[in-house]
Amino acid sequence: MNKKRGSDKFTGRTFKESDKKTHFHPLDEITISARLTVREIKLNLIDRNPNQPRIVFDDLEELANSIKAKGVISPIALKRVADRYQIIFGERRWRASMIADMKKIPAIIYDDYENIEEISLIENLQRKDLSPVEESLAIHKLLIKKSLKQKEVAFMIGKTEAYISQAIKIANFVEKYSNKEELINLKTVNGASIGREHFLSVASQPSVDDGVNLLNQIVSGHMTVKKIRQIVRNSNPIWDSKKVIRHLKSIRKTLKLDFIDKLSVNDNKKDVLEDIEITQSELKDTIKVLDDAKKKILGSG
Q1: Are 131 and 187 within 8 A, CB to CB?
Q2: For the chain, how many structural domains are there in total?
Q3: Does residue 248 belong to any structural domain of this protein?
Q4: How far is CA 293 from CA 152, 251, 287, in A?
Q5: What percent of the chain stands above pLDDT 90?
Q6: Beta bridge mates, 191
Q7: Is the entire prediction scored with pTM above 0.85?
Q8: Tens digit of each residue's pLDDT (9 = 90 or more) over 184-242
Q9: In terms of Cα–Cα distance, which of 48, 21, 24, 25 is closest to 36?
Q10: What is the extent of the structural domain holding 24?
């Protein structure tokens, strides 16, 4: 007889009751994700790392207000020290959570050195000075090395799944490029920064050669993202009417929302609301694109 089945809150992975990991440490709180070993830990059981070189933490009030409204999006990392926990990274989120009068904080617990590379990758991804290529390669490495899903990595570093998918696209292009180091160090041209959207446009080309050609145009005369998008549109083949209609029909089928009437939300209210808001935002962008298309068609008539 099958034992009771459940579902992982963040990864959506189903599992039997017997598949769950059991943790016997007395300090453990709620296991949010068995795959990621993310738990909610009481703030008063956590100590800062005495070797943390950073002493001043700016904008804590602003972060605290964000945490009050949305919670801690990305978990902090901890290790056990005697009967307490010590911060590996994420002290700013810990401090802001205390200001926000939170009782617990999501955390990944590391008890050994097997995951030291994972810790290093996550910590690097929290930095603000990474280039788009460096960040994309780090995300790709985290996915491959740890065999994680895109949803899991998105949760770990506080990004959307779409963001992770785009990072993979950039990383795949970089891996096929003849000189990876050249792309990693390509951060500015004529004093202007080359941003993530530049590399995403390059990586979205039909072939590596097409991507290299667009990259050369960017490097030779630093183009704005708007100009790049125009080049991408002009370089793509024109769709005939039958293909357009077929594609629009598939979109309408995908966007069928009759399940909303049957929506029943218990403990996942926050997650469902967040995904609804993301979908609304993407639909607003889609509506603008469709409105522009209508104007173009009517104008050409």
Answers
A1: yes
A2: 3
A3: no
A4: 36, 15, 10
A5: 11
A6: none
A7: no
A8: 877 776 666 778 888 888 888 888 888 888 888 888 776 666 777 676 666 666 677 88
A9: 21
A10: 5-111
